[in-house]
Amino acid sequence: MLKASALLAYASLGVAAATTFTSFHLREYRATAPCGFTEVGPAPQNKTLSLRLALTESDADGLIDALYSVSDPDSALYGQHLSKDAVNRFVSPQPATIEAINGWLEENGLTFEKLSPAGDWIGINVPVAQANKLFNTNFTIFRHIVTGAEVVRTLEYSLPDAIAGHIELVHPTISSDSFPDPTSMRAPYYHIVPSLSPNITTCLNQSTPSCLQELYKIPTAPAVNQNNTLGVSGFRGGAVDPAYIQQFLETYRPDVNPPANYTIYRIDGDDPDDPGISEGYADLEYTLSLATNVPITYYFVGMSPPNVLTTSFNLYPESVVSFALTDKLCQAYAQLGARGVTIFIASGDDGAGCSQDSTQFEPKFPLNCPFVTAVGGTQNVAPEQAWPGSSGGFSNYYPRPRYQDAAVTAFLEANGDRYIGLLNASGRGFPDIAAKADPHVIYAGVFYPVVGTSLASPTVASIFALVNDRLVSAGRPPLGFINPWLYKEGYKAFTDITTGESTIMCTENVTNTIEATEGWDPVTGLGTPRFDKLVDLLHL
Ligand SMILES: *[C@@H]1O[C@H](CO)[C@@H](O)[C@H](O)[C@H]1NC(C)=O
Ligand SMILES: *[C@@H]1O[C@H](CO)[C@@H](O)[C@H](O)[C@H]1NC(C)=O
Ligand SMILES: *[C@@H]1O[C@H](CO)[C@@H](O)[C@H](O)[C@H]1NC(C)=O
Ligand SMILES: *[C@@H]1O[C@H](CO)[C@@H](O)[C@H](O)[C@H]1NC(C)=O
Ligand SMILES: *[C@@H]1O[C@H](CO)[C@@H](O)[C@H](O)[C@H]1NC(C)=O
Ligand SMILES: *[C@@H]1O[C@H](CO)[C@@H](O)[C@H](O)[C@H]1NC(C)=O
Ligand SMILES: *[C@@H]1O[C@H](CO)[C@@H](O)[C@H](O)[C@H]1NC(C)=O
Ligand SMILES: *[C@@H]1O[C@H](CO)[C@@H](O)[C@H](O)[C@H]1NC(C)=O
């Protein structure tokens, strides 16, 4: 009886709720479709959308505090990286969030799938008609003008007041990166330079593994600690032929036998037989030949994290990825950093970049994230100079992190006037460091000379993997998120690059340049690493 009346009360409440006006919070908005897309019309009401919801983390700020306290050399907790569980305690949504989301989904007859181990990402499948009501929006068909490819997205969406505090973002909705645009620059895939002969043997014109070993004093002696791993991010279409990698190593590291020791984890849906020349060859051939005997994992996805991770693809202009999505992904880098992972990412190959209206420099995702270490490019030897393609700049999303205050302020004080109006001087500056991006040879069936910051990140990652090998063998923690240490201390082991410049032509016949200068600059950062000096600085 009691039960029945309770049920009745609930039912009448439900009716009341349904007739009550639900008020909404606007969560994300964009004025127009991304460049290159046109609006076709409303999406079919019965089409099912697979949406991902990022739930509010328990203590996102706490995670960032924890990250800095294990990464700042002056902190009492320096090097005391967090366990996976400790990180998840910051990231997992609070019980109140889970309860609110469960109630809201149940009320709407929906179920969800947990997409991340910490439970901060969930997935729902929902018809357009219902999604439009849930998020007070109009999902729309957009067509890519050149390719005709169609996609269902929206220009804005809102969250009901009652759950607005529990959801950070809904994806894919407004972020340009989720509009499939095969014609946009997606990656700094190394550039092939067909005019150069792969036979050049001088280090002035070509960075072979032995040239890099000589320039940066990278030892050829094998690493000893098999727990100290180096992760190489793979990507779809990045399949590699192990025979090719073996061929490269036999050519450039004949002293190491057996040379190639790496583990491949395939990404779902990747074609293992993709025979194309891929970024994978550059990344694997150089890490394997420089980080001698460091266990290397290719296609790192959700495996236990390596001590160093190098990524040379998936760069976007900053404005292409919505701030909410950028921030969520940046937070994921912070999680890895807190666990002790050093994340190197190639800074990109188009200088300071151009905003869509060509009036300003355009920073890049994910280098704008203050928790990654961005690697720019250099060329030549004696002196080693800025490579003209080396990307750098200042974020419009993230303010300058404290760790780079002194270095970046010094650059702006000396040079700021020259770039007024072209860049946002208050933002996070990148790259942080650099390495050679001039012609390298890769083997992918034949020897190709290639250039790009894609080559620089694997070199730096190899050097730090070897530094970590010594640290870990001495019973010390790996370096983890290095930026606070780099700007305070580590830069002393780097060669400051003070000549050369990055160039970009945004408007016909107008070339913008940024010169490398003494100290930090947004072309080569703090400079290029010297293994021998790193080892001295760290008393190894
Ligand atoms: C959606 O509705 C249209 C028109 O009523 C129909 O032709 C189509 O088969 C439906 N699709 C699905 C997936 O139910
Ligand atoms: C959705 O489209 C309808 C019809 O054009 C319009 O009345 C409504 O205001 C739109 N809703 C939103 C949230 O834009
Ligand atoms: C480069 O090396 C290849 C193979 O060793 C050889 O066939 C070719 O003649 C060389 N080219 C030059 C310009 O030396
Ligand atoms: C090697 O590099 C120097 C300096 O950049 C350049 O002058 C020379 O032409 C290059 N030689 C070849 C063979 O590319
Ligand atoms: C590697 O890790 C395993 C498991 O944690 C541990 O037992 C072993 O002692 C470690 N080896 C070295 C050389 O640190
Ligand atoms: C390859 O690496 C694994 C650990 O990742 C190690 O156990 C094995 O001994 C290595 N093999 C060779 C031939 O060095
Ligand atoms: C400049 O960067 C700051 C963050 O440091 C940001 O708040 C501001 O909106 C940016 N300005 C522009 C014009 O994007
Ligand atoms: C760019 O320079 C070329 C060659 O000097 C000239 O023909 C062209 O008109 C210029 N374009 C613009 C937009 O000034």
From TrEMBL:
Full protein name: tripeptidyl-peptidase II
Known catalytic reactions: Release of an N-terminal tripeptide from a polypeptide
Main localization of the protein described in the UniProt heading: secreted
Pfam families xref list: Peptidase_S8, Pro-kuma_activ
PROSITE patterns recorded: SEDOLISIN (PS51695)
Domain named Peptidase S53: residues: 206-540
Active site location: 279, 283, 454
Any single biological process term in GO: proteolysis
Location(s) in or outside the cell: Secreted, Extracellular space
Species the sequence originates in: Trametes cubensis
Role according to the record: Secreted tripeptidyl-peptidase which degrades proteins at acidic pHs and is involved in virulence.
